[in-house]
Amino acid sequence: MNDKFFLRLIWIVTAVVLLVVIALKLVPPPQTRPSFIYILPHLIGGINATCSILLIVSLIFIKNKNIQAHKVTNVITFILSAIFLVFYIVFHLYEKDTKFGDIDHNNIVDAAELAAVGATRYIYFFILATHIILAVVVLPLILISFLRGFSMEVERHKKIVRWAYPVWLYVAVTGVVVYLMISPYYNF
Question: Which PANTHER family match (predicted)?
């Protein structure tokens, strides 16, 4: 199979993931929820934290020219990211977005709650917005960098990783920050 095939596949996967995530916002949740659903945000936060650490470890491995450890670490990080995506989709199929600042968990952020969270709400939304936008952007970059890395196109891999790595790390770290900031407002 040639490069063109894999690049098309990467763009198809990216489009499908984006469409599924958009559909999650539009489709109402089922009436019944499985009991495990409420553990998923915590697992998602843990996966993001683990991926953040693994990405830094991967950078250390490649800086020390330990290519095999670098590859293994990236494969583990990629698998964890895929598991994250599955958990994210399952959770948001059943639970719609939690409102930041909803102290009394009634799905309404009233004036008193807005006053209580203050400017933190704007910081949260800025971090969340950049996290979401860059998560969309980074998916094809990650997939292309994996394609280049596994086919041992080192120079092409380095060129894409120069952009993919910091964005992926930012998305992983801000995923943890978003989790820590929103978790007090979960309605379960």
Answer: DUF420 DOMAIN-CONTAINING PROTEIN, HYPOTHETICAL MEMBRANE SPANNING PROTEIN
